[in-house]
Amino acid sequence: MSSQLGTVVIGGGTGFLGTALSKHLKRRGYEVLIISRKPGPNRMTWSEMLKNGFPENTTAVVNVAGQNILDPTRRWTEGFKQNVWASRVNTTRYMAQVIQEKDVKPSCFVVSSGVGFYPPSNTVEYSEDGPGGDFDFLSRLCKDWEEAAQLPEDLNVRTVQMRTGVVLGREGGMIQQLIVPFFLGLGGPVGSGTQPMPWIHIRDIVGLYTHAIQNASVTGALNGVAPQLITNKEFAQAFGGALWRPSFIPLPSFVVNGMFGSDRAKVMTEGQKVVPTKALETGYEFKYPDIALAAAEFSKIIYTDEYK
Ligand SMILES: NC(=O)c1ccc[n+]([C@@H]2O[C@H](COP(=O)([O-])OP(=O)(O)OC[C@H]3O[C@@H](n4cnc5c(N)ncnc54)[C@H](OP(=O)(O)O)[C@@H]3O)[C@@H](O)[C@H]2O)c1
């Protein structure tokens, strides 16, 4: 029997965010169809999507596909940058093309973007109308990614671009990479640690995607960040504190620059103060508004995934 709420199509739904979002939506009664490079049950490949369009009862289309920017095994070459760009912008364009060309239209199209849209600053606070998108590779990537999701107004498909901060959760992303060094007491801030670190707990980014799908008042850019502004050092202290471990061994900026190349190392060595103005204005209630609460959840020794 098909779901009353309809189907949510998720590009990149096999990843960290996509898996959590998919479980959450299924628990709420939606059907989920994943668009992936690999075929499988409840999946379509990108070429099948371009050929066949979306299922009849599609209510929302989401794109969280993207080659991992901070893959330490990949050098920051022109070829890899092209991969990073195409895996976000082209997949978003393909979805926009299907929405325009095929008969089945969702009520909304929600795509990922990043807080790297805004210029790094230790002082300025950015709401969604802050400037950006024009100063380095990652900011231009965000702008192109967001523009790829633009649809003609007469289609009546609401578009939301989620400018996401660092997503904190045990099942993937930064925490999965840092849990062992922090557990061993070898964790600490990156560089001086005074740079802001826009962050959000995995349950809240999933909650915000769902909020964007379900609320017609949410349109355009949406900052996907927690309300509490913290620095990188405050993150390290909260994480170490939740694990009862010291967290004062700094990771020098030159090491991070050497590992990742200074261009992408900026994701860790620099930051912006980003505020979730639109999320709060449209009534979203954060489950993990402060880092101590979030760290207590993703640092639990015996971890049970509540979405299962
Ligand atoms: N995690 C964070 O902290 C964070 C912060 C800000 C923004 N974001 C953005 O949110 C999105 C999801 O993040 P995530 O952490 O869930 O990423 P992830 O775990 O790396 O998963 C992303 C998915 O994208 C697909 N993908 C990877 N490389 C691809 C390529 N070259 N071409 C097409 N598809 C590709 C993969 O699906 P298949 O293998 O099934 O094709 C993968 O499962 C990304 O666009 C990311 O930039 C994430």
From TrEMBL:
Gene3D superfamilies: NAD(P)-binding Rossmann-like Domain. Residues 8-216 form the NAD-dependent epimerase/dehydratase domain. InterPro entries: DUF1731, Epimerase_deHydtase, NAD(P)-bd_dom_sf, SDR39U1. Residues 251-296 form the DUF1731 domain. Pfam families: DUF1731, Epimerase. CDD domains: SDR_a8. SUPFAM superfamilies: NAD(P)-binding Rossmann-fold domains. It comes from the Eukaryota. This is Epimerase family protein SDR39U1.
